[in-house]
Amino acid sequence: MISLYKGLYAVYLSVAALCAAGAAVAVYFYPTQAISIVSIAIIIFGFTGIFIIRITREKFKNEVMSLLYNCRAQDFMDKVDELFKDKHSKAHKSTYAWLKALGYDVLGDFDAMYECCQNITKKSHMSEYHRRMITYYVEKDNLERAKDEIEKLKVLSSTTSGPDKMMIDRYIGEGTRAIKLKLHDVEGMDSYYEGESDNTGSVLISKVSFAESYGQVLIIKGEKEKARQQLLFASENGGDTKYKKYADKLLAELD
What we know:
Elements: H1 6-29, H2 34-69, H3 73-84, H4 90-107, H5 110-117, H6 126-139, H7 143-158, H8 162-182, H9 189-196, H10 204-221, H11 224-237, H12 242-254
């Protein structure tokens, strides 16, 4: 991630060079303290690296992910293209594919999303790959393949712990609900949506996607006025996302 930003990457490399050079000089003059000197150099570089990585992640979140969080999907895609235009390593290509697949998903271009997914190769991106493939197969009415992808996520979850496991389990829940919704099977969904209505956080796209999905559930249940309220929120705040398009379509059908 650091290499996406030339300035921060230059600082990172400069610190590495200075630590190496400083350690070499110090060891030359104080050879009996070589182990201590090298250890100090490694510690300095390690803490500096952690600091720069944190700055990089915050910068990426504020400049790139915030666009998506605020339902500006095409702006997000353009920014991703700009950042990765000169990056050709295997790791960069996988990250680029994952981010583009995410953007195409939010825009509702599922064929383009599928193509990007085929270029996701990093192990750390596999949960995102399976998440997108669940979406693809649900949209294509291939629910058996979607269920297969959920099973693959369950395998990943069984070998993961901590926050990553929680994230994967959330993806499993999302996929399971998407399949049920496709089948118009909303039994038991009330408890989820009512429990989550106040827990969608401050991220706009989370609120919008929740409202659009809940609107679908309420329509199936016959609660059209409640559905209208949810769908209006998704329509008014959904920017250029698929959630606005879906909400607009459902609102037109309600009128």
